[in-house]
Every structure is written in C-alpha cells, then in structure tokens.
Amino acid sequence: MTNNPFAQLVGQQQAIELLTEAVRQNRVAPAYLFVGTEGVGRSLAARCFVELLFSSVVETHLVASVQNRVRQGNHPDLLWVQPTYQYQGQRLTAAEAAEKKLKRKAPPLIRLEQIREITQFLSRPALEAPRNVVVLEEAQTMAEPAANALLKTLEEPGQATIILIAPAPESVLPTLVSRCQKIPFYCLDSAALTQVLQQTNHPEILQHPAVLSIAAGSPGNAIACYEQLQVIPSELLTHLTAAPKSARHALELAKKIDKDLDTESQLWLIDYLQHSYWQKWHQPGIINQLEQARKALFVYAQPRLVWECTLLSVHQQCNVQN
C-alpha cells in the first residue's frame, strides 16, 4: 500500500499504530470512540483511517483517486455527520451558519433526524469500499433521544464502522462508550505543535505566547485563537494588554469593547487577557476578576458595565503592584 495518509498526522503515534494495525490485520471494529482535546487531530485521524481502509482493497494506481474522494467528501460509502442548527426548516452546520452570518445563542446539536439518516445510510451495502463508514463529530452534542437511536444502530451495525469523536468518554452515554473501541488522542508537546503550525503555514502564531498558552498543545485551538485575535482591533488590544493607564482610560476601553465586539469575541478576549496578564504580572486577583466577568457575560449582564467594573479593578490592582 502506498500513499500512507497517516503521514500528515503529527504527535499521535499510539492512535496511528492502533488504526493501522486494525486495517493491516483486517480486524476493523464496528465502532470507535476517538477521545481527546479539540484540535489535536481526531477528525484528521478519522479521515486518514477511512482513506487507509478504503484504499486497502483497490489496485495501487487507484489509491490516490480513492483518497481524494474521501477528502472531498464525495465517496459513496462515507457519511460524515456534524452538529447542526435548525434554521427556517433547514439544518446548518456551524460553518454554514457562520457563512450566512447567523448568530445563535445555543450550540449546534446532532439531531434525531441525523441519526435516522445514518440508519438509512447503513441499511444498504457498501458500493465500493469494504464497508460503510459513518463519522460523527462532536458526538457529545447528541441529546438522549438521538443517542438512544444511535445505540440501536451500534448494536447491529452490519458491515459498517461508526466513529464517534468526543472530548472524553464521560461526555457520551456509557451505553454508547461500552460498544466502542476507545482511541485516545493527546495534547502535543512544544516541538510537535511547532511542526504542525509550520506545516499548515501558520508560523506567525509562534510569536504569540498568550495564544500558545490558550491552545495548551492543540494546533487546532491555536489556529482558531489566532483567527479570533485578528477580529480584535489592534489598537484596542494594545491598550488592553498594557492595562488601563487611568480610571478614565478603563471606562473608554469598556465602551469600545461593548461597541466593537460581539459576545463571543468578548468571551474569547477574557481568555486571552487572563493568559496575557498572568504571563506579565502573575496576579491571581486580576485573573479572578476576569473570571467573574466571564460569568456575568454568560448570564447576559450588560457588557459595558461588566467591562467597566473589570477594567477599573485591573487598573487599581496594577497600580497597587507598581
């Protein structure tokens, strides 16, 4: 077999060995649970595994074609399921909702209708591959009716494999976990994280210690954090990371945050400032004040007032330290 797809997956050697051996020995399980922090390669590993599985039964000159079809999402024996929003009678993934600029208060879910579509998909035999494969991203978002419906499918999957992707076994119903072979994924060390960011053309992220601290060994999180960082006006960010110079300055910054940033960006900014301030001053009081601000924003307190109180406190505590 050529064109090993796992060559692109960094820092997850145990997962690679388990999945590669399953294909090599023709002992692919009916269900897997890929568990680990978001952004460390779980979805990439699922795609690599499907590529390897589907290309293992074709002639060498067809391997690249099979792998490309899996990557493009148009292989007839692969169903990839993501959490969705319900909007005007349509189901939209998070990416589709963002493209339409829809703001939703609740997170997307894997819905009962999607599980029924999985059942229908698995009711027919595979057309080209050795088996049908279904991948469920963010499996922890399944409500109990959807999880119970999936359980029936897992009990009799037929000639198929179902891959659930979740942050931890505890985030999924125990009855589902018990029917899956667990494949653990781990946060990357500094060298592996650097390698991934360079390979994916994001070397500039390595110059932002606060972003790397938030990412905590997850390349996906590092990239998402850096993209969010670009949303924050650079002048505002400069003033905030240096801390307010006066009480008036704190109030002006609070007003600008309320005016320029939506709630999601404000919540992210709290994370960023916690890491940035801790690296600069190691002041637990400031970190706790920001945590209180997060809780207030989550319960829909008036954002400008939240930021005024928070930044005034940061200003006072920095003056005390100085």
UniProtKB/TrEMBL annotation:
InterPro entries, per the entry: DNA_pol_HolB, DNA_Rep/Repair_Clamp_Loader, P-loop_NTPase
Organism this protein belongs to: Nostoc spongiaeforme FACHB-130
Superkingdom, natural source: Bacteria
Enzyme Commission number(s): 2.7.7.7
MF term (GO), any: DNA-directed DNA polymerase activity
Keywords carried by this UniProt record: Nucleotidyltransferase, Transferase
Protein name: DNA polymerase III subunit delta
